[in-house]
Amino acid sequence: MNTPVDDLLLANVSRRHFLKGLAAGSALVLAARWDLALGEEEKEYGADAMPHGWVDDPNVFIRIDADGTVTVTNHRAEMGQGIRTSLVMVAADELGADWDRVRVEQAPADQEKYGNQNTDGSRSMRHWFAPIRRAGAAARMMLERAAAERWGVPASECHARVHAVVHAASGRELGFGDLAAAARELSVPPRERLELKPQSEWRYIGEDAGPAYDVKRGSVVRPKAIDGEDIVTGQAVYGADVAFEDMLYAVVARPPVYGAMLRSVDDGEALKVPGVLRTVEIDGTGQPAGFKPLGGVAVVAENTWAAIQGRKALKIDWNLESAGDNAAYDSKAYRKQLQQTARAPGKVIRDEGDIESALADAAERVSATYYMPHMAQAPMEPPVAVARIVNGRAEVWAPVQNPGATRSGVAKRLGLEPEDVTVNVTLLGGGFGRKSKPDFAQEAASLTKAFDGRPVRVQWTRDDDLHHTYFHAVSVDRLEAGLDADGRALGWRHRTLSPSIGSLFAPDPEHIAPFELGQGFNTMPFDIPAIRLENPEAPAHVRIGWFRSVYNLPHAFAIQSFAAELAEAAGRDHRDYLLELLGPSREIDPRTFGDQWNYGENPERYPIDIGRMRAVIEKATAEAGWGRDLPKGRGLGLAVHNSFVSYTAVVFDVELGDGGGLIIHSADIAFDCGPQVNPERIRAQLEGACVMGIGIAMQSEITFSEGRVQQDNFHQYLVPRIDRAPRETRVHLINPDSEAAIGGVGEPGLPPVAPALCNAIHAATGRRIRRLPVGDQLSA
Amino acid sequence: MSITLKVNGKTHSVDVDADTPLLWVLRDELRLTGTKYGCGISQCGACTVHLDGSPTRSCVLPVQSVGDRSVTTIEGLESPAAAAVQKAWAEMDVPQCGYCQSGQVMSAVGLLEQTPQPDDDAIDGAMRGNVCRCATYQRIRAAIHRAAGELEA
Question: What's B2-74's CATH class?
Fold first, then answer.
């Protein structure tokens, strides 16, 4: 997810002067719905507002060799969202390249050159479709001009067609490879003169042959994922796959409690383990930790296994005093504490109408308190990094979502200038927000320095990952509503309590920040006369960080569960009631809710669109056969949520099996992210989000006792396996030709999953789940 | 100590502690990095290799206990079932981040070599030990069905 705090720590380079030069050329106007809106507002939005903004220079992103091979440089991190394929599709399409002759090269960290590289917040396509498309168009025009000069004809008569430039009048044709050298010498056409292809000429963007798994159609979606073949043959390179002949292997014993420090270590036994070379103290950084390492003791060895064995033999005395009350942190007691705090008013976030009289005068009052625990992102590839120093220059190989912060952090750690640090971004074996925090790369940097620059790989074990990640914020949400005699909601009061990610970078604010409130809390769109939203305090006791969809998870869970509870209290059909709560189709400026954030996007271009919310509800429920007769013990559940400027509705069909086991027959997901570049990968992301969300609902929980995580590995931290996946998951992409701007994809599929599933459980069993995970609540 | 291993048809001699799990010998000594570390306690399946053709978690298998059994990793996978699985996987865009997919492919090939036409229950049973955090499970099921169909044809 977004890292606004991180971004604030960096210089915000204005792109306004570039935009001014852009003006509104006719070609751009043709493509206005796909391109940046060029407003006159003072505030910058979207890619303009990101550190280092955007770059659209074709010479930065596209290279054509004499043999015709087109190499597109992808500067965003690949973690399964498919950006290495999808952004290349954009460049290749606009260029007129043949997909089979296009390859991708991964950019190192260099935001001055490439623009913003922080791959987070479901932003890549939203922010980069337009610049990469312009880069492709500019490169194509340069090839056309090179051909025109060669033939001595006007450039307007030369057109790129599938990897060649054609002069129709004379029937002449030259391949991209034949023109590459000449084209490279030409000046880049100015933005206002770029001729972007009309949508009708796209060959890859938005191309949709239907789901690849639809065997009946036998369709193979083109273009296929660029790394697909390498992955299935074991050739793809992730962080842990980088190796050097003289490389050393390290694991680190980190403080068991957030803020604890090393007092002393006895490494005598560890050094006796065959293959262990020595131990190295890594400086601890206390609180707030930011992206800096937690510190501790590294065991450095000739191979990974020796390092792991050596670490087991360390005798460490930790100073827990520096951790303060974190050393007493108990997640069960903390839940009670938050529930208690939630009974009293908190910081007012939104106040419309007279909530007190709306509740007092209600014919019926409903209240409920919801809980979502800490969770770990647990990407299948645990954090890992390789670093070395050669001639005073550091080089890092790591699976990082945020290459820029990795580079600046490593430079600072080593006392180097960022220019003297190269960060090579490998494939990420999953990210989910964990790898937006590059503390592990700084560990590797410290270790290579301790070995005079020799390459060192630091490998986190799964225990390390679960014990020391940046945890998803635990949360309590208390809701109260007053209904009139007809069941209509008159008043809605919602208190949300979670530790803030802000606590990672500054003294604990104990209240969530605007970019956290804006994740579905203050943007709650129901059309209710009296609304009061409050945020009581909730201190942080562990490192809190982004987890896919972030604060949208608890907010959607609470709001969408409670809406179903209100429907039940009103004796109404849940879908009909939810549509009534949303009210008529309209566009809402999020600023009217006090949300100044809006995922960093222009609120006029990206309003909260109730029509689109209604549409995804109607689509998902229609496809799921909402209202059909079901046998006893079986039920449908619905939830909707907008996040990352996209819209998702989910309907589950579930049944309670013998012995309390839940059978998930199917999921129908309706998704609207505006224009789609790579529909097949969008479907895949939604399928995955659905099952990850089932895990969040059913089984995933990190607990703390005495400040320590109680789960060591996947036998205790449960994540969904194949038998949790619904037998049928149907993703319904809607509105592909809408006038809307591009929305996010990686995260918005997740928030409505848990409430939809819990609503389905209620429909099937009458049991209302308010505390996640469900765990054994159904059999209890 | 020196241990002799047969991996992907080649004999290797490695000098490692006898208790070292096969996974780390493959990755650190032989640089066969297609086999992945995910948990170290046979809970996630990312480290799955074939031992005399049977899917086995290499992260908990001490290298000394391999003996003269032949080890096949993703890099050395070669059989009609393997080809069908890898083709179906790529065609159906099964992988998202891809990190677990070596292990998924190894398990799927093992399944199809034992059970040529598995139903969904058989697939879930055989693939339950392989965690995919991107949760590509729906496509894994579909790709196994497609590979099974291809092998039958």
Answer: alpha beta
